[in-house]
Amino acid sequence: MNTTKLIVISGCSGGGKSTLLSELSSHGYTVIEGVGRKIVKEHGEIDPLLRCEMIISKSIEAYHQAKNMATVKEGMIFFDRCILDGISYYQTISNKYDHFINELRYFPIIFMTPPWKEIYCQDDERGHSFEDAVAEYTRLLKCYPTYGYQILEIPKISVKERLQFVLSNTSEKRNNCMKVIETERLILRTWQDSDAAEFYRINQDQKVIEFLRGPLAMQEVKDFIAFVNQQFDKIGYTLWAAEEKSSGKLMGFIGLDPLKWEAPFGPCIEIAWRLGSEYWGKGYATEGAKAALEYGFNECGLKEIVSFTVPANIRSIRVMEKIGMQRDLNGDFAHPKLPKDHRLSKHVLYRARR
Questions:
Q1: pTM
Q2: What is the mean pLDDT of residues 191-214?
Q3: Which candidate, 327, 270, 274, 262, places its Cα nearest to that of 304?
Q4: Which helix (H) or strand (E) is 248 found in, with range?
Q5: 341 and 211 share a domain?
Q6: Residues 278 and 333 occupy one common structural domain
Q7: Domain check: are 225 and 336 in the same one?
Q8: Phi, psi (5° rounding) for residue 239?
Q9: 278: which DSSP letter?
Q10: Is-cis flag, bond preceding 145, omega within 30?
Q11: 261 and 137 share a domain?
């Protein structure tokens, strides 16, 4: 059985797609050249319908060519667009080619380069305007989900970062986890067993655990991952794995968590975050916490969310304030899990209400 992943990179014309594919090729990945520009180069400007039929025919050939390739790097072949682009155009007049939608299947995620006016330019094979390119992109955005594909927009970042973004989102880790929240730079998702090593490393960093009771052992990390995933399955929110979109790297966690010990302000739902120190000072915690807060109110129907920390943890307090939480001046408390004279006993309380 051929298990090669046939991965499509489509999107807005002039959005950096060809540059990204060239970068993939330079790293040894197999790339199937787009047939549209080749047809224009060979035949010039022809009737749009005839051009569309030629694109579909050539795309079918390219698909079977890829399927018959014996060995490719990491079992992945990247396509510069595919038959679906041609079918989506042809559907405006006929469903003649619709059966190919299910017969010729690609990797379930379609990567889309968004409109990027700053780098858009016309050439001999791209004579249409930027506005026409955006219209085509908008049409494709509507079509792909109806064909049973997930769309993943590629951020406007450097080509090397784009390459890492694509590769990280075609990995087995991505296929086996669930993306819950996506922001401009972050993905909050369920956890994988493969996250354990990196999360263990994060929890040995003295900067990270400065206001915690100590480092986590590997078994504690594994138990944590299993528990928070089970919690998400039961109640629809948890402390999600926070992933940097541009690199695909695990950064730590951001999310919502029911308080599991008796508190004077409980029972309640806490918003919390813990990121590796290399990600501090970049606004990641604020960006992710704001999205998690909105998710709690809008998707989970929560009425109030709290957060708390020791007074010396100025970084976390700033995040709480930046996402709109207000300090409860009467809510200071001694953590019941710690002796009252412990340096981490005293906590300040912040609240956010819908």
A1: 0.54
A2: 92
A3: 270
A4: none
A5: yes
A6: yes
A7: yes
A8: -90, 100
A9: G
A10: no
A11: no
DSSP 155: P
- Closest-CA residue to 10 (of 100, 70, 127, 89): 89
Number of domains in the chain: 2
Same domain, 91 and 211: no
How far apart (Å, rounded) are the C-alpha atoms in residues 188 and 288? 8
User: Residue 307 maps to which CATH number?
Assistant: 3.40.630.30
In terms of domains, do 35 and 138 share one? yes
Domain that holds residue 257: 179-353
Other residues' Cβ atoms within 10 Å of the Cβ of residue 128: 12
pLDDT 10s digits, 285-321: 999 999 999 999 988 889 999 999 999 999 999 999 9
Whether residue 236 sits in one domain with residue 266:
yes
**What CATH number does residue 61 fall under?**
3.40.50.300
Q: Write the DSSP assignment of 279-330 as a string of letters.
A: GTTTTHHHHHHHHHHHHHHHTS--SEEEEEE-TT-HHHHHHHHHTT-EE-TT
DSSP 183-243: -SSEEEE---GGGHHHHHHHTT-TTTTTTSSSPPPHHHHHHHHHHHHHHHHHHS--EEEEE
Q: What angle do CA 193, 196, 200 make, to 5 degrees?
A: 170
User: Comparing 41 with 313, which gets the higher pLDDT?
Assistant: 313
Residue 59: HSE in the Cβ half-sphere, 13 Å Cα cutoff: 28
